[in-house]
RNA sequence: GUGCAUGUAGCUCAGCUGGUUAGAGCACCGGAUUGUGGUUCCGGGGGUCGCCGGUUCAAGUCCGGUCUUGCACCCCA
């Protein structure tokens, strides 16, 4: 055999069993999105490079998959020989790219909103479930091609939207039975802290350092900030805040007082108080945590930021998002605020596999298998099969009169719960022998009785 | 993008300081059992030891490169 074929690094094939599980996740999420009145859209896999560039920070730009058009490729080819070489080896000269694979669904959505503004009634609640691509180095739970399930509402400043998104998160993970913690913070609060310690120009450095707190510890964070040029006094004031431990309520009271004289910070705390105020009167099963160390790198977030992590599984966040006040502004439509979160279908899959959370019954795609005993039986069965399908029951007939052992094994492997055996006797009596594959019990019944039981 | 590991049958892994035709369990196929599976017994197929090169009389084993997967940094779903 020739060299085995392969797929690019960080991409995966999905087998039937994997697709059944993935569909289970995606359908669950989709149903909940619809339950809250969100409408689906799709956008192209490729966008103009200018649409994506500069929206995700410097790190993000590096991770964009850039694509060259054939036109620009051929227009600058030299000799016939060079042309051949480049064609065969897909060899591209360094040249300005024109397009890129989408990096997330939020920026294309902002572009969509601006482009279709006249057809959209605001607030616009949309969901979008599509793959995205990042030229990142793969690791566990980190792929170069993965699915995001986005829900956003754009064109409304109301904090009710933040609350609704958290309800959705709660519903999704409750349904999927994933043990989780919803971390909530607000960029304005982070900015307020910078205001409070008098270092607003160092806002980015401060958030990046705070973000690492549970990873590298307070001393290293202080060290890092000192290197950035923060004064000793500022660092001490920051430590005072970071050292505070307590419940969400205690943290809110503490910070509220701390930031009462900052402009943006006070604003942020008002938002936090309002959001938690709503959430406390709703029944949310997920653990919620007001987490000051949550920063999130994506440049466009301006208000609430949200991240969900799975308990007991080391895989990073399984859902994340926040409010972006002016993402549409860069496309020429200012003052349209949006907020949304994105569920990582692939990571959710990994968590559910590790924790064994896929319900057994979701794995069977066929409900009834007709055993094939020969030509006469085949003809008889085909009619019965048709009747079950007409009743909406997933049914198949084994395509050849193979040994019973093989046919039953086939049912086992596909986790088909019921098998129907029809031989000479059954045909004469006009009944079916129905075998329950779990208990092994067999019962004779008519086709209508079987339909009724399914 | 930087550093460190990893790779043997479809899957999980043995294979000692280099030494005959590279093994096991599970899975698959066939038989015991011509209409009864998921438990038993017997038999069978399947590997260019990730790929390329080097050292050696001899390489799965040592060396270099490359790719894959994973870990840390970074960032994130």
Describe the structure.
- With 454 residues, the chain is α+β, with helices and mostly antiparallel strands.
- It has 2 domains: 16-37 and 103-354, 2-Layer Sandwich (BirA Bifunctional Protein, domain 2); 364-453, Anticodon-binding domain (Rossmann fold, 3-Layer(aba) Sandwich).
- The protein is built from 18 helices and 16 strands.
- The chain has helices spanning 16-35, 49-52, 57-62, 70-75, 80-89, 106-115, 160-175, 187-196, 203-211, 213-228, 232-242, 248-258, 263-280, 345-354, 375-390, 404-413, 424-429, 447-453; strands spanning 39-40, 46-48, 66-67, 99-101, 124-133, 145-154, 180-186, 287-290, 304-310, 317-324, 338-344, 368-370, 395-397, 418-421, 432-436, 442-445.
- The strands form 3 sheets. An 8-stranded mixed sheet has the order 1-5-6-11-10-9-7-8.
- Helix 1 (16-35) runs antiparallel to helix 7, helix 9 packs antiparallel against helix 10 (213-228) and helix 10 packs antiparallel against helix 11.
- The longest helix has 20 residues, at 16-35.
- It is elongated and about 95 Å long.
- The protein binds one RNA strand of 77 nucleotides through helix 3, strand 6, strand 10, strand 11 and helix 14.
